[in-house]
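Notebook, bench 3.
Goal today: get a predicted structure for Beta-glucosidase from Rhamnusium bicolor so we can plan the truncation constructs. The sequence was checked against the plasmid map this morning, with no discrepancies at the termini. Length recorded as 99 residues. Pasting the sequence as submitted so the record is complete.
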Amino acid sequence: MVTMYHYDLPMTLQEIGGWTNPYLAYYFEDYARILYSYFGDRVKYWITINAGCAGYGDDESPPYLNQPGIANYLCNHVMLLAHAKAYLLYDNEFRVLQK
């Protein structure tokens, strides 16, 4: 079982808005493709995202944006898009090969 993301966003991605940037969903899909390609033959279960958007709507955890109702909404939206893209990628391109 592998978790793809758990509070480990590279700083260069945070500098372009982190999970509030819609392009991150596409970057996450590319990241998922790499993981599926290199490790899919050995991984039976994938967890796409195991982290919420704490730190976007408060100042208690990174990235400490504290923009409730704005940044945490955008973060959740982009995380859902990223999850959907990773799931559909696996379903369409890897499920038949890796079962």
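The mean pLDDT is 94. The radius of gyration is 14 Å.
Flagging this for group meeting.
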